[in-house]
Amino acid sequence: MGIKNACSGCGTKEWVQPVKDGIGSENPVLRHALGICSALAVTGFVSTTLVMGASLLFVASMSCLLVSLMRNLIPHQVRLIAQMLIVSTLVIIVHLYLQAYHFEMSRSLGPYVGLIITNCLILGRTEAFAIRNRPLASLLDGFGSALGYAVVLLGIAVIRESLGRGTLLGYPVMPEGYMPVMLLASAPGAFFALGAVAWIVKAISGNAEAAGGCCASSVGSNGQGGV
Amino acid sequence: MDGSIIGGLAVVFLAAVITNNILLTRFLGMCSFIAISRSMRNAWYMGLAVVFVTVCTALINYAIYFGVLVEGAPLLQTDLTYLTFIIFIATIAAFVQLVEMVIERFSSRLYNALGIYLPLITVNCAILGVNLFMIEPDMDISLIQSTIYALGSGLGFLLAICLMAGLRSKLEAADVPAPLRGLGITMIITGLMAMAFMGFTGMVQQ
Question: What is the pLDDT of residue B114?
């Protein structure tokens, strides 16, 4: 995966750029095939996807920040284990919060909250960027990647829930008598939806890159362009 | 051991390998599945390493979880289940490190074949996934059942990654549209494979 340069000056442009890259040109799910497991597992419903996206935003930004703050204290040989311990501590916080305040959601996500620990997106960012960059830049980098992840997941979830179940966030959105495409709600449908989104985004962004850069909003609209 | 127990274990095993395949229905281990399935040889070694580590860590973590962490466990009386994630991942990381050292010491040939895959296994979500599914309240399984479940899940991963490696070697000669190459076509093939595995549903009565 590409290693981005450290942000040295930190003007407004350097603040926005990592976030923009995370959603667009450096998108973790579509460009680097990171974090695919949960991209498939939780996208059956929009509500679980929103919670998963928010949890990952928190864990990714905070673990990048903490790893970056501790980067001079962690010996090189044990850095992977140190990073995993930081990440799992943050995941425990999320898990306990969900159990305490959103118990039903915690039940329906099941072990997938715990599996944020092994989400390669987070370890990818801490290992490739946060371990040798300044705290603020790392925080933005983690936030941007996680945001890109959340946007793609939300696109897939909107497709899968609206077509596969005829609802959005539990409310019926399809016209009366709509026959849900059961395939999209089932496991193979998750693979097809992600494959289709990756295909469409690549087809469109390939043209956009030729015309001079891929903009942040293109992924979001492409995600729904699959409908 | 009477027949019904063996029958029960067979159900757990078949369900883990085929109908609840860890990769195709639970979506775990996708990252290494996509990265390693380019060659059959690597897929085979990676799959074997996953089977071994899954079974061993499931045994260790089962003992730790039901012996120490759970409320009213034999060793400590307090409820320490909130430490589950951190203990499980530490066990897996430590075990993988240990295996790497042992293999390096005793068989350089095996080390050269497996060496680069072992660190990847720590972040393979299939292994942590099996460990976490094992302690889900509605599973309620014994030590033997969880060992069989871990073995079945590992073999399910091995089966899926080897099938995928075979398909991808055929795919190299195929004329795939440019935007579909990479993630797109891999996901669609995996989807077709998951559909084929769905055909087994109903074979195993839960």
Answer: 67
Q: Whose CA is closest to B124, among B28, B60, B41?
A: B28
Per-residue pLDDT band for A89 (boundaries 50, 70, 90) equals very high
* Structural domain boundaries, residue B142: 3-198
Domain count, chain B: 1
Find the mean pLDDT for residues A199-226. 52
Q: Is any Cβ of chain B less than 8 angstroms from the Cβ of A119?
A: yes
Report, as an integer, the average pLDDT of A209-221: 38
CB A98 within 8 A of CB A169: no
Residue A6 belongs to a domain: no
Mean pLDDT for chain B overall? 84
Mean pLDDT of the region B126-149: 85
Of A34, A40, A199, the CB nearest to B179: A199
Assess if residue B203 is contained within a domain: no
Residue A147: domain span: 14-172+180-225
In a domain, B28, yes or no: yes
Nearest to B31 by CA among A39, A4, A52, A113: A39
Mean pLDDT of all residues in B48-54 = 90
Sign of CA dihedral B68, B72, B74, B75: positive
Task: Identify which of A187, A168, A186, A204 has the alpha carbon closest to the alpha carbon of residue A50.
Answer: A168
Residue A30 carries which DSSP code?
T
**Owner of token pair 């850095």:** A79
CB-CB: which of B29, B86, B183 is closest to A30?
Answer: B183
Indicate whether B143 belongs to any domain. Answer: yes
Contact A147, A34 (CB under 8 A): no
ipTM over 0.90: no
Q: How many CB atoms lie within 10 A of CB A49?
A: 23
Going by pLDDT thresholds of 50, 70 and 90, the confidence category of residue A198 is: confident
B156 neighbourhood in chain A, CB within 8 Å: none
Reading the block at residue A11, the tokens are 């003007």
Contact between chains at A120 and B85 (C-beta distance less than 8 A): no
Token pair, residue B9, equals 């274990």
